[in-house]
Amino acid sequence: MSTGLEGRKLSTTYSCSKGFYGQNCNLTCNYKCDGCNNMSGSCDSGCKPGWKGDNCQQPCSYGFYGLNCTQTCNDKCDGCHNVNGYCDREPCPPGWEGSSCQQQCQENKYGLNCSKMCGNCRDLSQCHYINGSCLNGCDPGFQGEKCNMECDFGFYGNGCLQECGSFCKRSRDCHHVTGFCKNGCKHGWQGNDCFEVSKLEDSNTDWKSRFYGMLGAFCVSLILNGLLIAFFIMYIRFKQNQHSERAKKAQSQYCETKPSETAEGGYQELGDFNAIPTTYQNLEIQ
Question: How far is C-alpha 183 from the geometric centre of its chain's CA atoms?
Fold first, then answer.
């Protein structure tokens, strides 16, 4: 007697949880599969991102990643992770950072891994993200392509074009940014840049000026007084000489006049003398 089961194929239909397969669903699917066949375990539902092949055993080719290996790695990467596209094989090239090397260096940094600091770029602007050059020039007091060198000795300020003062204690030795003399000023000068005449020196100069002025006035006074005295002496001598000349002249005139008077008087006396005998003769006649 036939039971009706003969010749019939026994079919058993079952479904394992995702990630498992086999008769008792106790076998684990390949982790690279996006699920697998319940019976054979083949990756008939496709591969997880980053993998390819029949059994999802092959990673994405160089330069590709993601689901079905269709996404392209960032061109800044030297290849990338086959699953997430991160640049994990080599560091990002100089000037780039981020998991996929998608971001330029920032915050005044540049170079490999953005590990170098920019120089003293003008107004703290960002330097070139790869080589660190300052694109807009340097802050006052600095020079060079990267603005990381101070001004040469004796210069300061914008473009290092201003000269330090020559009255610094050490001539032209000033701060490269401000121009202030580092060790003070030479004698007689003051101020941050030693361009002001010292007040003490001014007072000393004033005192010396007054002293020399008074000394000069005194000397001039002595000279004038000496000239006045000399003039007075010469005037007195002139008067004395003039008086002496007059006296001599008067005496000379006197001497010329006196002899004639004597001769004339002597004549008269002689005449009187001659008159005596006449009187005497007259007396005899009487």
Answer: 15
* Cβ atoms of 155 and 164 closer than 8 Å: yes
- pTM (2 d.p.): 0.51
Number of other residues whose CB lies within 10 A of the CB of residue 255: 9
Q: Which residues contact 145 (CB under 8 A, 6 or more apart)?
A: 133, 134
Tokens of 25: 């669903």
Q: Which residues of the chain have pLDDT under 50?
A: 1-11, 260-276, 278-286
Q: Is 47 helix (H, G, I), strand (E, B) or coil?
A: strand
* Alpha-carbon 188 to chain mean position: 22
DSSP string, 173-216: -B-TTT--BTT-B-TTEESSSS-EEPHHHHHHHHHHHHHHHHHH
Q: Which amino acid is at 269?
A: E
Dist CA 171 CA 64 (whole Å): 66
Helices (H) and strands (E) in the chain, counts: 1, 16
State the Cα–Cα distance between residues 67 and 47, nearest whole angstrom: 8
Contact 65, 40 (CB under 8 A): no
119 touches 142 (CB < 8 A): yes
59 bridge partner residues: 51
Closest to 128 (Cα-Cα) out of 120, 138, 137, 118: 118
